[in-house]
């Protein structure tokens, strides 16, 4: 028996003008919202509350060191030594459709337009708030674990790299992806449902890099379905049951199950270069199972949800036993790894290879630096000059056979471009070991790591541990391939920033943590060098928020294009309003709904909210016009089973109003469509 707490809080942030984090495509900036992003927190404590483990899964691209340091600082001032770097795991789901700009290392500023305070703040606030809610709702309860196979939801997107692994190793596995889902079920002592964590390896890239609506992708849709199901009668994002679909060793795993085809000719481009006869690599894109990215997201999300639901209902293996956690900070650019008695190798200063710029079949080509677009901007000029700096011979030799594109470990202006100090961490809850990794392990890398950790537990008297990998935790260090995959230098290998022996180094480090947990010596682990906290308050190339205007004879929230009078289910109700920049709302309100769909109740003569902007059936588009004007279009994709009746769509926004030369204020406003009928 444990004390258990679950919590969920909004962490969406600014949904307009901020580049979305994941595809590193500078063109892909936010322009509205499909669904809200949430941080989901789970606390497990022993009966007297003295030992605790916190697992957080947030709907963001990846955890950043900056977010983690700020969260830990806030937890310390609030709870003292209760929640610390060793017993708090922060994991990102890896959606590629969330706002960026929450990093302190320079590389990530390039495509995120710097460090964007409102984006960083909403993530930090959301994570802390979700932990607060979990902390306040601790109650006695029980944990159950279950595992099963998810079909038709992933492919390996670098199969030619995978084939470089030894045949003897590959023959032990049925597939070139990990199809196993592990779920942790939480109930209170009366058997009432509290929450679920699922770990499953798949990239949340069903929404591709042409998308401009903030959303949590396939795994977020799975969370939504599970929570809607358990929190009956509640709006999305409300209700006490929390379901997290967390990331795992997804490095080479794509949800785009129809595989890579040439966008121009339709033929397959499943070749070692992922290249097309006409148009080369930029034409080679993988497609999901649906007719468009929205449908693909739902199909993959539904698959993941259905399996989790089945495993949850059938879970009977109880987790019991002590709680412990082990953590170290490690300088990953300088780890000596003993491969065997006579052979020691080392990791390298971080660097990215040429194939990094090629992207993947899920999103081609990053860093399209074009001449002319950076004219006269000293920040970019200095970066460009930095880029021309040649990697040292030492770094070149260390990373072989990787041809280095960016020697980020040797680039320090205005701050280091990549982290050296990285978190390694394991939390054990009875027979469950959560291995928190700082990046994207490939399928085979994850298998080797799990096996090493399990065997370490085995040989120190803790047999039959359930070892799961939680991905994208604590600090982002790109990819971790096997030594053999590294030799092939596809995207994942080019992005294995600490060199060919990165995986071996991690295996050595995580073995040490597992040993300390098994032998109860975690207090003797050296803490390691603390990560830096750079003094960057707000450095951004985002356009500033200036005073806005409505067209003549109109005011903010007025309807520009009205709904039709009548719709059927399956159709799309659409209305366009005079809008305000959604960033105003993010910067002034902690939690804000941009829209509601409301149904008229005859009996009471009132309007009832039936959908909000966290619903996957609504889409909110913001379009910037000329003369400081903008429009907002709201779509409601009327789902099957919608009750006939009278409905309306409402819009809630904020605009900037000029009071004087020096002063603008933010003014809330709202608008509503006419009433329409669903027949």
Automatic annotation (TrEMBL):
Gene behind this protein: Asah2
The entry's keywords: Hydrolase, Lipid metabolism, Metal-binding, Sphingolipid metabolism, Zinc
An example molecular function term from Gene Ontology annotations: N-acylsphingosine amidohydrolase activity
Pfam families: Ceramidase_alk, Ceramidse_alk_C
Protein name, per record: Neutral ceramidase
Reactions that this protein is recorded to catalyse: an N-acylsphing-4-enine + H2O = sphing-4-enine + a fatty acid
Binding site for Zn(2+): 94, 203, 440, 479
GO annotations of cellular component type: cytoplasm; extracellular region; plasma membrane
Residues annotated as domain Neutral/alkaline non-lysosomal ceramidase C-terminal: 511-678
Family stated for the protein in its record: Belongs to the neutral ceramidase family.
Keyword Transmembrane in annotation: no
Protein EC: 3.5.1.23
Annotated catalytic residues: 254 (nucleophile)
GO biological process: one example: sphingosine biosynthetic process
